Amino acid sequence: MPGLIVVPQADVALMRFYQDVDGLCRILERADRYTAAYAAEFLADIGGPTAADALLRCLRDPAEDRLLVAAVARCLGQLGERRAVPDLIAALHRDDWSFPPDEVIRALGDVGDPRAVQPLLDMLIPYTPQWREVLEAIVRIGDASAVPGLLAALWDLLPRADGSSGDALGTEAVRTLGRLGSPRAAGALAFLVASSAMPSGLRRAAAEALRQIDVTIASGYGRLTFAEAALSDPDQRISEAIAEVLSSTPGGLQRLRWSVSNADPAVRRSVCHGLGTEGDPEDLPALRIRLSEDANPTVRRAAAHAIARIGGHEAMAALVEALGDGEIHEDVTHALAALQPPPAARLLTLLTDGTDQQRHGAATALGLLGDRRAAPKLLGLLPDATALLVRTAAVDALGRLRHLPAATPLIGLLTDPETPGSLRARAACALGRLGAPEAEPALRAALGEPIESIRLRAAEALGMLPGSPQAVDSLAQATTDRSRDVQAAALQALGNFGATARPALRTLLATAEGWLRSDVVSLLAQCADIDDLDTLTAIAIEDDMPAGRHAVDGIARLRDPRTINALRRIVEGPEELGCRFPGDLRGAALRGLSRIDDPAAARAVLEYYMSDVGDVAHGAAREAVNTLAGRTGST
Fold first, then answer.
1. Which of 119, 428, 557, 574 has the maximal Cβ count within 10 Å?
2. What is the end-to-end Cα distance of the chain in Å, rounded?
């Protein structure tokens, strides 16, 4: 390039800092390719006609370096510059590269101009290793004109028995058709769903794609007949998706109604799901028969949820009758809670007048509904004369309702060694939901129970309370529990206490190892103060990831000028730090420096940008310079 000059990157950063568009344009036209690429990025960040014109001139120069063309294409895509579309299309076919840079393809998608659709489709056949970028660009353009071409190409993209085409390309092409949402693709997608020769992942993608298409607009039921076979698919995601799609057309809905008594239980299950999607009261009688008489529990479960979507008095009666079905009891309970309008009055009656199964279901449903009128009756279900399944449901419901008068009886359950362990664990969980401070001593004592589930729920519950020094000490000790789950729960509970737990977290750092140490660092970083600066700096420099990254994030979160030297040390990095994930650590430190309103922090960012340490954190450095420029508002 005539008149080539080399400009320190710091000068480019200062031009961005002072919004010097003309200076950046000169750099773009005359500097070495790396510096020019950095100038291009800042021109895109500033934007405006002058910046766009300079980037266009660079893209149109046939002698321009490949690296710079790729960078400029990315920048024009960022600006959404439609004038660049013909030149970007031409760049797809430059003779000086085997494959066009990903940046050119992505830029066409970012601009979103339909003129790019056909050139992108042409890249799919013959096969291109950049097919993911091509399909994503087509989706971002979002023009329906892509559908016929993509359908035409689809058959060449599907898996072949000879292995000449893999599963991934065809599956992603199918997903692309769904994201484009055109009804013109419905027939082909229905055919693929029913094609047993296709891999299950591709068929699942086709079924999900059909869900994204409004098949009522142009396809009609006729184009979906192929998909009927998928109602019996062993993959429930496929069969349910097809049932939903069929239910959205009159013809498909009629086919579902005809198939509600099909001999295949998989078909009956799918049909119930599809009928529930529409929520038509006309389907209630057939669904009630499935709920009460079908020999297959998966069909009865599907019928229960379908009936709940229909709602109304008859639906409530059917679900109440089904509460005695032990195989599907939990599903029926949640279906009752989902009914509109909620059957609260009937459920309250069942708490006292129903069978044990009905009381269990009513208690669970009332807890899910948040109906506080149930609390007094639920308290009456706690004594040990009541069936265990009913007591369990009552405990859970009282916790969900956050009924504070329940604290005393729940503490009694937790501390009674004669109470079954499962119920004591649920009582601990409920006490946490109540947030009752008086439960803390009992929960701390429960951390020493031999039953793991009780210790686990007690640790979780303590984390929901205000957090006294005694609770902090008990939880810190529980981080050495023999159960990893209890350790994790205790540590998370300490994290919930914030600054209150800071001394305990500092102490834990001295002995914690492995995953526990990383989590301790993460929690300390979230509540750290300036007194933790030296500790976090040492971790950032000496520890492996992710503990080191957590430490840097903690320092950056302080936004204190006193952290500048520490962040600079991380950015500059000793050799051993430079060999371990420098982009992550330096990037976090640069972002932290850019958020400190101090000239020394700004100088540190600019000095890194001008340095020759490589581009491992270039994106973060660019972001940091932009942050500085945005804060100063310099012109």
1. 428
2. 31
